[in-house]
Amino acid sequence: MGHVQMQPLRFGQAQGKRGRRFFRWFCIHAFRILLFLLNYGLFTSLKSGLQSLKSEKEGLKDSKKQPFNSEKLFMGQLAYHSTTGNEVEAFSLTDEEWNTIWNDPIGTWLMPKTNWPAIPKVSIRGLRFFAHKSGYPLPLPKPKSYAHTRLQIDIVQAARSLGFKANLEVDGCCPDGTSWIADVLAESETGRKIVFEVQLSSQHLRDFKMRTEKYRLSGVSVCWLLPEKTVGMRLMKSIIYENEDYYRKNGMFLADCETLITFGLSISGKDKDSYPSPFPPLRFGRGQYIKRLELKEVIHGMMSDFPSWQEPDWIWNDKTG
Predict the structure, then answer these.
(1) In three state form, how does the secondary structure of the chain look?
(2) Tens of pLDDT, residues 267-293
């Protein structure tokens, strides 16, 4: 019987067949994994988008029930209707009007100057305000503190109660085109215009003078409301230092400036997230000429031109002696 000799399989051939099988297996499974990831990624992205939209809508509905726990945003008091252009003030709206704005679709109300959708919110202290909808691509306006905003509102309400026209965040410009924005602009029936500037943070004396000059060139008078023991004290020291020659000549300090009318607030310049209730009187003048005035007295006196400069002092000339 003949013997059949088997040809041994070479090592290289065996390895080649195994390699091809593994490569096919790897490609099939890699393709399946890729399809799974693509499908899963698309699904999760869609799901995430829907959840975000749902959360945003629910947040708008529930925000009047849950106060917004942040006051580092720009707490704007003004918004305007995207179709009619009508402007509203958060602080002066009735509850019914405020709730109507809550339920309006996003984009119905826009923020001034940026024209970005305005979202109505309520701060943890109960202050109504408008904030920019998330996603604004440019730098947002500098936020104002709770105390700053509250004082602006109180000035407007007090001025209106006295019969004056008063508005927040009023734009204006000098004859040369230089622009300014007044914290509060009040106007009498005779056309006298007074700007009330709230300055809770220190600024250089030259900035006080520069900003005051802008208003003067525009035919508008201005007074400054500032914390007496912080901003007011630093401003006084700067004025004294600038007028050293006056001291050498007259033997007394010149602690006020003819171009700057200031009222001292008995509040802290550091804690800008608190606000006193009731609001304390404001200080005007120094030494024997000091007056402690209620906010309405300040507004009435400014509109009636009571402050009188008699170097080196400001005097409250209310004709009462």
Answers:
(1) CCCCCCCCCCHHHHHHHHHHHHHHHHHHHHHHHHHHHHHHHHHHHHHHHHHHHHHHHHHHHHCCCCCECCCCCCCECEEEECCCCCEEEHHHCCHHHHHHHHHCCCCCEECCCCCCEEEEEEECCCCEEEEECCCCCCCCCCCCCHHHHHHHHHHHHHHHHCCCEEEEEEEEECCCCCEEEEEEEEECCCCCEEEEEECCCCCCHHHHHHHHHHHHHCCCEEEEEEECCCHHHHHHHHHHHHCHHHHHHHCCCCCCCCCCCEEEECCCCCCCCCCCCCCCCEEECCHHHCEEECHHHHHHHHHCCCEEEECCEEEECCCCC
(2) 876 677 789 888 999 999 999 999 999
Task: Look up the pTM and report it.
Answer: 0.78
What dihedral angle (degrees, nearest 10) is formed by the CA atoms of 128, 130, 134, 137?
-150
Question: How many angstroms separate the CA atoms of 261 and 195, rounded?
Answer: 11
Instruction: Say how far apart CA 75 and CA 78 lie, in whole Å.
Output: 9
Which candidate, 223, 217, 171, places its Cα nearest to that of 198? Answer: 223
Percent of the chain with pLDDT over 70: 79
